[in-house]
Amino acid sequence: MKRVRKAVIPVAGMGTRFLPETKAVPKEMLPIVDKPTIQYIVEEAIDSGIEEILFITSPYKKCIEDHFDRSYELENRLIKSGKEAKAKEIEQISKLAKFYYIRQGEPLGSGHAISLAKSFVGDEPFAILYGDDLMYSKNIPVLKQLIEVYDETGASVIGCKRVDMDIISRYGAMSLNEDGTINTIIEKPKKEEAPSNLVGLGRYIVTSEVFDYIDKLPRGIGNEIQFTDAMMNMMKDYKYLPCEFVGTYYDTGSKDGYLKANIEYALRRDDLKDSIRNIINDLN
Ligand code: UTP
User: Ligand 1: distance of its center to the CA of 13 in Å?
Assistant: First the structure.
């Protein structure tokens, strides 16, 4: 069985939930404290054993490419001003992995974005990390938890969590077969129509057959091709397993999810936790 060593990160979406901020600045580049969201996601991939990363990007997201490239002028200036440690830190970002980029000419949906990764992936199993789904894990990185399930079973894997039924309509709710594999996913169901409170969240390991299923999909609502639809068709022929991961999920593409991530990441930092705690206490 082949090892999971490649990852695809689609970042070409329009980020309509975060307008007007996303008009000129990608939501993936918004900082969580002092680091862009996308860097945490790349670091999660690297810490999970990923070696090569393909970004599915767009003409409006050039700064993501710049962020993972060398910045000689900045590095030299930092060195000249005696900030060697900072210069090293900046240089390291470009060395995290081998980075590749493909542009999605039009934002035609997550499935269309992922279909562009076909030649990069070849016949290997690969990881998908959504560029606005941030995962915090104290111990084993969330993607690594999914890879462990893949390594044990050879099945495709979806990162999952159980959520409160009152917010189930924001997510894709799953129904499971008796053997624990995923039977189907109902996107954004009403509370009374949800098959369970187990929802899929922005992390996947899929085998390369998924491209055949994307290719066969018709355009859906808004002319878009949804990745979930391709996985649902593939589930009829191939096993998909849920991985109820240990860790915290933040939807940084939503305003409240983004702000929650900033507060909680700041509270985890020794240099900030006391001052942030004081600010919060002063609000009461
Ligand atoms: P989302 O639906 O969360 O992102 O897609 P979005 O479309 O940018 O956001 P809203 O809903 O309009 O606010 C999940 C992931 O798929 C990428 C997004 O960038 C995000 O990482 N995506 C989505 C693409 O790369 N291309 C697309 O056509 C659509």
Answer: 4
Q: Please tell me what DSSP assigns to residue 219.
A: P
Contacts of 234 (CB under 8 A, 6+ apart): 156, 206, 209, 210, 213, 240
**Bond preceding residue 195 cis, omega within 30 of 0:** no
pTM of the model: 0.95
Question: How do residues 220-252 score in pLDDT, each as one tens digit?
Answer: 767 889 999 999 999 999 999 999 999 999 999
Protein residue closest via CA to atom 10 of ligand 1: 15
Asked whether 163 and 185 are in contact (CB, 8 A), the reply is no
- Which residues contact residue 51 at a Cβ distance below 8 angstroms, ignoring those fewer than 6 apart? 5, 6, 97, 98
Question: 111, 101, 80, 85: which is closest to 216 by C-alpha?
Answer: 111
**Contacts of residue 93, Cβ cutoff 8 Å, sequence gap at least 6:** 39, 67, 68
